[in-house]
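Protein Record: Sequence and Backbone Structure Tokens
======================================================
Tokens: labelled as protein backbone structure tokens, with as many entries as the chain has residues.
Task: work out the structure tokens from the sequence, keeping to the layout shown below.
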Amino acid sequence: MLARLRPQAPALVLLLAAGVAVLVAVVADHIAWPMAPAFPWLHHGDFAYVATKTQWDTATAARSIARVAVVVAGLSLIASVVAFLRSLLLSRRT
């Protein structure tokens, strides 16, 4: 079984990285949600407009982390598809 998965290992690792990045984005958006959500359409306009400076700074940092995590997830997903297709092409050659 492991011998069959070995050519697809890079694609599986990148897919796992994309999944972890999505999880980080969801958690960061949840932390940032009351003041400054990274994805406002998920919260249907339910925001808190009164916050302390510390809460606002935390929300802004979490929003930035969420947005970067989404970019990393997208790039990892694209890279995993490319790695999987590459492994398929290399396995057909041999």
